[in-house]
Specification:
The protein is an all-alpha fold. The chain is 66% helix and 1% strand. It is built from 32 helices and 4 strands. The longest helix is centred in the first third of the chain and has 52 residues, at 52-103.
Length: 707
């Protein structure tokens, strides 16, 4: 592997000189091609030399002529390899030098001798969070540019190494009769020949194939040449690709050289992504791929193992473009929906596995979609197609009806868990496996997908849903947390199920029932609770200090009474969901202890779900509020008080009251003014109790059907 220091300090003139020298050798050898037979053999024949010795000499000299011809071809190939390597090294060096030059004027960044990027915040900006984020982002961008330049040089080195070794050949007595030379097309032909050996590759050949694929998979010429040239037992094109997908996926799961085969399989996925980007392989080839995927495989049972092979390859490593992914995904849905066979009968016995090799092609498709939010959004958009409706309402998922018995760690990796991740990507605009900032605002397609999904799982009547499939709880918790402002409006305001912020169309009770289903997973519930706490703090921050002093009529300032009622109902609804979890698991002490431990902000801090950047006041309110909530959660609760749920589960009430008192103090009120029964704060605290109690009881009894 090329290092930053090597690339930064290297002198590539020697590579150019070697290329020129080999070109000279090739020219000289070419000039000798045919000279032996022409000059020596003909001279002897004219002199009348005949007999066995003459015939043997003629044969030997013709062989020498062949050696010169092969030597010339090898030398020409080596010259081309060295010339291409020199150009690739120079390009990588230019990228490195340009990145370093562009960063010279930024006094907040520095680069060490080994390429490490350091950053510092100027003294005058150290209290500015935005400045620090910008500097950190600039440092990361520079580090990425340097890393890409070094990776480019490493790839060039790998290509040249494999090409030189291949074209020189392994024989010590003969020249390579068919050298490839340099460039992506030549490398693709090398890779194609090596791939055809499959499991019979020697260790050295596997290393060569790894290097070729790793160095070239993102090159368009290489990838298209490779895919168009594949041949497997007479099968070509897409059919051959699917066969190689099965072969190398199987080898990657084997006991011998599994890591090497995994690398080749992953690079084949990258090559497919590269070749199909922007329709690169053409509509006819893509249509042929889908037709091949629909054909039943070679199994005696007649089930389809071709579509699972395709979606597994998509999920291996490649970064596919939106158009190709949605085309494959929509075709898979159409094929499965229209097939008379279902489940294991269609996809084989591995379809229902929840660990090991899972043969449901939808799982790999959904996992791929989850890493491509724009593709997920287009694939699920109910205004564009019926994919979401099929997956929500009509599809039979593996182990459906028994998912509640699955362990969370297993359920998150199943087909249904992958479906949840893809929905999270589509509705939030973020890859749930990454750490991207929130996408704001949510567009209309995101809102449609969110509305249809939550409405479906929310059911039609009280008590319709008390559980979500285990694999959906965490993604749904993150989705609802991402729509905290809309959740606040739907639960806390009279908006008739239509939020103003993102335009969600979700009935209040349905939303609450889904929140209840999410709440069996304490970390998913915590994501919602934290996001709503932040939204409540943000809205509280918008009220001026005068709102905490009586207006001309002796009432609180305009609007804040309504806010308190809204916020109280929102936190009450969350506590109502919490109360249903605890009462339904009343006798399960282990569950209750585990639930409360995972929800404890004091122990594990704030959720990792990305949340919007907020100001110091809002963050302070969140910290104060969640701390008070945790204190209430940890207090001993009398099970005999279940008749009054708002008293039993009053952590949210205390949280909101603490936030209001804290805000009043920051607004300039003295402790005496805050405590005065004639003052605004006490009036607001009384309103909190009423609205919170209403939220708890309406949620528990109306939305959830509790008694």
């Amino acid at each position: 592997m090329v290092s930053f220091k090597e690339l930064h300090e290297a002198d590539f003139s020697g590579v150019n000189e070697a290329a020129e020298a080999w070109a000279g050798v090739a020219k000289a050898l070419t000039a000798l091609d045919g000279r032996v037979a022409k000059d020596l053999t003909s001279t002897a024949q004219r002199a009348g030399w005949k007999g066995d010795a003459a015939d043997a000499a003629t044969t030997a000299m013709q062989g020498i002529d062949g050696d010169f011809k092969q030597a010339s071809a090898v030398a020409t190939a080596l010259a081309a390899i060295m010339k291409t390597a020199a150009e690739d090294f120079a390009a990588a060096r230019r990228d490195l030098d340009t990145a370093l030059h562009d960063a010279q004027g930024d006094t907040t960044l520095s680069v060490t001798a080994d390429g490490t990027v350091n950053w510092t915040v100027p003294k005058e900006e150290r209290n500015d969070p935005e400045a620090e984020r910008t500097i950190r982002a600039n440092a990361q961008a520079l580090s990425d540019r340097l890393g890409k330049a070094v990776a480019k040089a490493t790839a060039a080195d790998q290509r040249a190494t494999v090409a030189l070794q291949g074209d020189i050949g392994t024989s010590t007595t003969a020249f390579n009769a068919a050298p490839y030379g340099a460039g992506p097309v030549a490398d693709a032909n090398r890779a194609k020949d090596l791939m055809s050996k499959g499991g019979s590759l020697s260790d050295d050949q596997l290393k060569q194939l790894q290097a070729l694929m790793a160095a070239n998979a993102e090159n368009k010429d290489f990838s298209t040449t490779l895919l168009n040239g594949l041949n497997y037992g007479g099968k070509t094109g897409p059919d051959a690709l699917l066969e190689y997908s099965k072969v190398y996926d199987g080898l990657a799961r084997g006991n011998h050289n599994a890591k090497g085969y995994q690398d080749v399989y992953g690079s084949l996925s990258v090559a497919l992504a590269t070749a199909t980007r922007d329709g690169g392989m053409g509509k006819a080839w893509e249509d042929g791929l889908l037709a091949a995927a629909r054909r039943p495989g070679a199994s005696a049972a007649g089930y389809n193992d071709n579509y699972p092979a395709l979606t597994a390859l998509l999920n291996a490593r490649g970064s596919f473009d939106k158009g190709f992914l949605t085309k494959v995904g929509t075709d898979l849905v159409d094929y499965e929906r229209g097939s008379k066979l279902k489940g294991e009968d269609l996809w084989g016995p591995d379809w229902s596995n929840i660990s090991g090799h899972q043969g449901d092609p939808m799982r790999d498709l959904m996992q791929t979609m989850s890493r491509h939010p724009e593709a997920s959004k287009e694939f699920f958009d109910p205004a564009a197609n019926k994919n979401l409706a099929y997956l929500l309402k009509d599809r039979q998922w593996p182990n459906q009806g028994y998912e509640h018995n699955q362990l969370d760690t297993l359920a998150r990796d199943t087909s249904r868990g992958a479906f949840g991740d893809a929905l999270e990507a589509a509705t939030t605009g973020r890859d749930p496996h990454g750490s991207q900032p929130p996408v704001r605002p949510h567009d209309a397609a995101m809102a449609r997908i969110m509305s249809d999904t939550i409405s479906h799982f929310g059911g039609d009547s009280a008590g319709h849903v008390t559980e979500l499939p285990v694999g959906l709880r965490r993604p749904f918790g993150n989705m609802i947390a991402d729509y905290a402002a809309d959740t606040y409006e739907i639960i806390g305001k009279e908006v008739n199920g239509h939020s103003e912020t993102s335009g969600l169309a979700i009935d209040r009770d349905r939303l609450i029932r889904v929140i209840r289903g999410v709440s069996d997973d304490p970390e998913a519930f915590k994501a919602i609770h934290y996001a709503e706490s932040q939204e409540i703090a943000r809205r509280l921050d918008s009220y001026p200090a005068d709102a905490f002093r009586p207006d001309g009529t002796g009432r609180p300032g305009p609007g804040i009474e309504g806010y308190v009622r809204e916020a109280g109902q929102v936190l009450g609804a969350l506590s109502g969901a919490q109360s249903d979890v605890m009462t339904r698991h009343h006798d399960d002490v282990v569950f209750q202890n585990n639930w409360q431990a995972k929800m404890n902000y004091h122990l594990i801090g704030t959720p990792l779900t990305p949340v919007p950047v907020v100001g110091d006041f809002v963050q302070r309110m969140v910290d104060v509020g969640t701390s008070e909530w945790a204190n209430g959660l940890n207090s001993e609760q009398d099970q005999q008080t279940q008749a009054d749920l708002s008293k039993m589960f009053n952590s949210g009430e205390n949280q909101l009251k603490t936030m209001i008192v804290e805000k009043a103090g920051l607004a300039g009120l003295t402790q005496a003014e805050i405590n005065s029964t004639a003052g605004v704060p006490q009036k607001l605290l009384h309103d909190v109790s009423e609205s919170y109690g209403t939220g708890v009881n309406q949620t528990y009894r109306n939305a959830l059907g509790g008694r």
